Amino acid sequence: MSKISLDRLLQSQGFGTRKWCRELIADGEVAIAGETMTDYRAAIDAENLRFTVFGEEWEYREHVYLALNKPSNVECSRKPSNHPGVLSLLPEQMTWRDVQPVGRLDHDTTGLLLLSDDGQFIHAQSSPKRHVPKRYLAITFDPVTPALIAQLTSGVQLHDEPAPLAAQRCVQVGERQLEIVLEQGKYHQVKRMLAAAGNHCSALQRIAIGGMTLESLGLAEGEWCYLDAAQRQLLVPQTD
Ligand code: URA
Questions:
Q1: What is the spatial distance between Cα 39 and Cα 90, in angstroms, rounded to a whole number?
Q2: Is 117 noted as a catalytic residue in this protein?
Q3: 196 touches ligand 1 (CB under 6 Å)
């Protein structure tokens, strides 16, 4: 990788405008390998770079890929209206980097949400052609019945859809609990499918995307982590 000036490097990592980054440098707030950097023009090799800003250590990342355990009452929208937005759960640098959620969960849906500043990754993950299965745990208002499972797996007709939508898999896991796997990501899909099948969703959690489970990440509600390349591989549709 070619070298990049220190002010541009900080800007690329979400530390604010170039002017602001230059001020941070001039104020002695930026260090590399323990050395305070005072020249914003210093040419830096960003590969595998670790640096500190205000004493906090950061690693240079061309793009960031994040998983968040989304709590309830948080909106995925970029302009949240009734609740805080998901970006408020992340360091401010992520907003400056233009990190965005990959698809959306409803404000009252909890669980696994991916976020990134890599447009290609966001596009690929959200593409309907990609068929990355998403697994949800739904708490139902009425008890789950074999007939409900049969309806969800054979397909239910939603008002604005041309054809019935079917769950890829649907398993009862409690009297009022079912796990449902969907390949599509239609608006309010789980809730609308349950309603169309004559039940009602009283709580919803996304517990897996492709081969990545929320449990394996060990995130408490509201916590997030970076995803490395091996973890991102779990998000690619598996051919069997
Ligand atoms: N289906 C829903 O109904 N809501 C979500 O947030 C995700 C899937």
A1: 29
A2: no
A3: no
User: How buried is residue 150: exposed, middle or buried, by Cβ count under 10 Å (0-12/13-18/19+)?
Assistant: exposed
Tell me the pLDDT tens digit for each residue of 216-239: 999 999 999 999 999 999 998 766
pLDDT in tens, 145-161: 999 999 999 999 999 89
How high is the mean pLDDT of the chain? Answer: 95
Ligand 1 centroid to residue 25 C-alpha, Å: 45
Q: DSSP string spanning 109-156?
A: EEEEEEEES-HHHHHHHH-TTT---EEEEEEESSPP-HHHHHHHHH-B
Nearest-atom number in ligand 1 for the CA of 136 is: 8
- pLDDT, tens digit, 9 for 90 and up, residues 200-221: 999 999 999 999 999 999 999 9
**What is the dotted CATH code of the domain comprising 65-127+222-233?**
3.30.70.580
Give yes or no for residue 110 CB within 6 A of ligand 1: no
Q: Which residue has the tokens 């054979």?
A: 154
The CATH fold of domain 4-59: 3.10.290
45, 106, 117, 160: the active-site residue:
106
CATH superfamily of domain region 133-209 = Alpha-L RNA-binding motif (3.30.70.1560)
